[in-house]
Design brief:
mainly alpha
């Protein structure tokens, strides 16, 4: 039970924050929960695909080429594309998606479902290797870095999906969708790449990437909330 609590604590805190920010027209809890659970479910095929790709690139001898592929292809593309597919199938044409901010909160729910499963696997694995304090350490580190990172990538993608859904041009709609997916993949890739270098400068760059994504995400949330059609403030 303790593994679940350590894994879910940062996730629950972030969910509460984004639900609280949705102050003009709350989303139905049932659909939010469904988005979260599909984020959990999609983790399983993603892990299988990532394992297959990792086996395929084992022959790459260059260290930087190897971590580049693991960061941008294995983690960045595979994970963000899976979340994108869930969003498109479950949310994009749903009648509850009726304001730009909705894209952010649903994308965050999908991403946090994914992060929850991933968190649990890392925390449990750390317990097997290092006992309770090992799992607590991993849980704390992931709560500070990995869970917020998944959230920020989701906000960035969701921001552009919100623009896409409510623009008046099919060409612009397609462009916004591709831009959102692209930036989520790229930011995720850089975040993981800096971690995989295992160098002090790499960790500094990772922290700076996370900070930059966080600032962009906060700005994106503010912009979509201010443009809500349910905001009747003058």
């Amino acid at each position: 039970m303790i593994f679940l609590e350590i894994s879910l604590a940062p996730v629950i805190a972030i969910i509460i924050y984004f639900y609280w920010r949705d102050k003009y027209e709350k989303e139905p809890l049932k659909l939010l929960a469904k988005a979260f659970m599909w984020g959990v479910f999609v983790t399983i095929p993603v892990i299988l695909v990532e394992s297959f790709i990792c086996l395929s690139i084992k022959c790459v001898s260059s260290f930087f080429a190897s971590i580049f592929l693991k960061s941008f292809l294995v983690a960045g593309f595979t994970e963000e594309f899976a979340k994108f597919i869930v969003f498109v199938l479950l949310i994009y044409k749903n009648k509850e998606f009726n304001e730009p901010y909705d894209a952010i909160i649903y994308m965050v729910m999908i991403s946090l479902g994914f992060a929850s499963f991933e968190n649990f696997s890392y925390v449990f694995g750390a317990y097997v290797k290092g006992g309770f304090f090992g799992s607590l350490t991993i849980g704390f580190v992931r709560a500070i870095f990995s869970v917020p990172a998944h959230t920020f990538f989701a906000v960035i993608m969701g921001y552009f999906f919100g623009l896409a859904r409510f623009c008046n041009s099919k060409k612009l709609e397609t462009g916004y969708i591709y831009i959102g997916l692209f930036f989520a993949i790229i930011m995720h890739g850089f975040f993981d790449f800096f971690i995989f270098t295992k160098a002090p400068i790499g960790l500094v760059c990772m922290a700076l990437t996370l900070l930059a994504c966080g600032l962009v995400a906060l700005r994106a949330v503010k912009m979509h909330l201010s443009s809500s059609p349910f905001n009747h403030k003058e």
